Structures are given as C-alpha cells and as structure tokens.
Amino acid sequence: AEESERHDEL
Amino acid sequence: MNVFRLTGDMTHLASILVLLLKIYATKSCSGISLKTQELYALVFLARYLNLFTDFISVYNTVMKLVFIGSSLAIVWCMRMHKMVKRSYDQELDTFRHYFLIAGCFLLALLVNEKFMFPEVLWAFSIYLEAVSTIPQLVLLQRSGNVDNLTGQYVFLLGAYRALYILNWIYRYFTEPHFSRWIACVAGLVQTALYADFFYYYFLSWKNNAKLQLPS
C-alpha cells in the first residue's frame, strides 16, 4: 500500500 | 517519525511502566479498572495483527510486542495473581464494557478506510481505544481518593493521545497526501474524555493536594 495509507503509527 | 509521535509513544510506554510499577511494588491493583485493561489488550490485538506481515521498522515491531505483552500481562495479573486480584475493586468496576466492544465493532463495519478485514479491525481498534478509558474514569469517580501512581498512570495515558493529535497536525502540514481522519476524530474524542480528569489532576498538582474526583 502507498506509504501514507500504511498504518505506520502505533 | 516526528517529535510529537515519539514523545507520544514514550508517554504511552511510561503510562504502562507506571502501572506495572504500581502493581509490582504495591502488589495491589486498587483503583485500576480491569475492564479498561481488557479493552486495551483487545485494542492492541486488533490493531497489531500486521505485526508479522507488514514490517515497518524495528522500533514499530518492538513497541507493538511491548504493548501487547504488557497489556496481556496486566490482565493476567489482575485476574490470576492471588495477591493482586484480592485488591481489585470488583464491586466498583461494573461498567458494561461489552456494549463498548459491540458498538465500536458495528461502527467499524460502517465507517472504515476500506471494507477489508484488516481495515475494519484497525478502525475497530481506533474506536475502541477512544472509549476504552471510560470504565477507568468511572471507577476513579466511584473510588473517590486516587493514589499517586494510579493518578499518574491515567494522566500519562490521556496525555499520549493528545501528543498524537499534535503529530497528526504536523504530518498533515508536512506530508502531501496525509489523511488520518478516522484516527484524528477518535483521538479528539479520546482526549476530550480526559478533560475533567486533567482539570482535577492540574488542581491537585497546583494545590499540592491529593487528587480528588467529585463523585
């Protein structure tokens, strides 16, 4: 998925 | 990663460490809501399903393991540890949190970023976290006096999401197509629920008095 869509936060 | 999010994660970690300290040092969980702990364990399990499938960074993976491990350990402690469970305020911790779980799941089915299983669970975990502190705040109001460690635990738990709001504002202005409106709205609701606690916490700090919540 695009970087911004990935849930990269806790 | 930005300073708001890092500080937010460290504040969240600190809240868990303070809670572990309280339970370990005093062998007591008086003033702590088991229902809130169970809701948080569910939040982490539902949100970190991608733990092994979607590697983001070592930091991200380590923190997810710490959050899942500590929340399950606290629930286990409060349910099984004979010394600790004796101090659990069972008769005060009566908020029916199953309604919160059902309501958040229904909302996640209706409002999510993509109608896919992982996304619905992610939205569920975001909504559930926003309301997961309600049993804890209700318990504090019923139990009247709040011991220092419990007060610090709740304060840090509320402060971390407020820092995340600053993180979302920062990312909104610095990243072209950043949109976390589900997490943002839920984060605002979550932080707003702490408003009156923050007020009484500030008063107790200013007057150097015991933290008292009006019942």
UniProtKB/TrEMBL annotation, chain B:
InterPro entries: ER_ret_rcpt
GO molecular function, one term: ER retention sequence binding
Keywords carried by this UniProt record: Endoplasmic reticulum, ER-Golgi transport, Membrane, Protein transport, Receptor, Transmembrane, Transmembrane helix, Transport
Signal peptide (from-to): none
GO annotation terms (biological process): protein retention in ER lumen; protein transport; vesicle-mediated transport
Localisation per UniProt entry: Endoplasmic reticulum membrane
Membrane-crossing segments per the record: 55-77, 98-115, 153-173, 179-202
Pfam family for this entry, one: ER_lumen_recept
Entry's Gene Ontology cellular component terms: endoplasmic reticulum membrane
Annotated membrane topology: Multi-pass membrane protein
The family this protein is said to belong to: Belongs to the ERD2 family.
Name of the molecule in the record: ER lumen protein-retaining receptor A-like
Lineage: Eukaryota, Viridiplantae, Streptophyta, Embryophyta, Tracheophyta
